[in-house]
Design goal:
mainly alpha; TetR_C (chains A, B); Transcriptional regulator AcuR (chains A, B); homodimer; Arc Repressor Mutant, subunit A; Tetracycline Repressor, domain 2; transcription (chains A, B); DNA binding (chains A, B); DNA-binding (chains A, B)
Chain lengths: 196, 196
């Protein structure tokens, strides 16, 4: 059986550490200590802390893409219900962590985008890609007459994903589901209101 | 003429540094170096980095309260227009920084609330206080029949402030006004739609 790669162990430890103390607050030393790896093994696998954080972010987005597919790809439900299902699915994941962790993409957007041009461009590309399946689902809901067509599906998708980040931000401060529930209730009775 | 207090200089430097590298990524050494102050003067004035960050946050919220009053207190405009004016006023401030800085309250909410219980409780109190003038303005707009009364004014105020944080988050990644403009357009034609 192949030995589990130290590279993977270091990436896992990095994700946990950066969730806790952010990009700036996490040192290579913190990560290798948490991974139980010698510091030299970090430099064997990663060019810099910035390049490492970029890989952590990519792995995290891979996980998010799986959740997006799980919620939006099941065509047995109507599109508006699938949008809602995504937010409910995320809510369940956040509840598992006691509402102490939000989304690494949002965390890095506020904390790292100002000082790392590499991460900022990567985050920009992530948001653009993230929007695509949501815009498709929203366009489908509009075509079916489930929701209003006053706004472009791309614009509504960006609005949804950004506002949801705001709800998670408030959730982290309150350590409760309240802001998530509020967002879902209000957004789905106004912006994404079901047409009669 | 009294000498400008080193305490104030250190607080100003701390605000700038924490905007750039966050709570975890800013050391006392960074702050004193930026303030041109000996490190000992920091410990003369502040108990710990956490206590210092708490004062920085309080000073920042004092500034925000001024902007809230500037936008919402002028009763010559109708309440719905005053809400919109707040977002436009903030947009102007963010444009002055080239959309590279957002809101320290949002930054700390994501980055510091998980590790500092002191800051988390302070942020929670800030959001509760911040909501009050917005809820009053929204309730006034509802009483005048300017906007719908389907939701409680407190809930709408929390929704507005949280979603606006999400728009600023996306703005920081894109370094453009787009997410702010999108939020204002969509929110004021749906959630805060003017009734006929």
């Amino acid at each position: 059986m192949p030995k589990p790669s130290l590279r993977e162990t270091i990436l896992d430890a990095g994700l946990k550490a950066m969730f806790r103390t952010g990009y700036h607050g996490t040192s290579v030393r913190d990560v290798t200590a948490a991974a139980g790896a010698p510091q030299g093994s970090f430099t064997n696998h990663f060019r810099s802390k910035e390049a490492f954080a970029s890989e952590v972010l990519d792995r995290y987005f891979l996980y998010v893409r799986g959740l997006v597919a799980e919620a939006l790809d099941d065509r047995s439900a109507p599109p508006r219900a699938r949008l809602r299902r995504y937010l409910d699915l995320i809510t369940g994941k956040l509840a598992n962590d006691g509402f102490t962790r939000g989304c690494l993409i949002g965390d890095f957007s506020l904390e790292a985008s100002g000082s790392s041009e590499l991460l900022r461009e990567q985050l920009d590309a992530i948001f653009r890609e993230w929007r695509v399946p949501f815009a498709a689902c929203i366009a489908e809901a509009q075509a079916k007459g489930e929701i209003a067509s006053d706004f472009d599906a791309d614009e509504l998708a960006d609005f949804l994903l950004a506002s949801w980040q705001g709800a998670m931000l408030r959730m982290k401060v309150e350590r409760s589901e309240a802001a998530l529930a509020r967002f879902k209730t209000i957004a789905f009775q106004t912006v994404f209101k079901e047409l009669p």
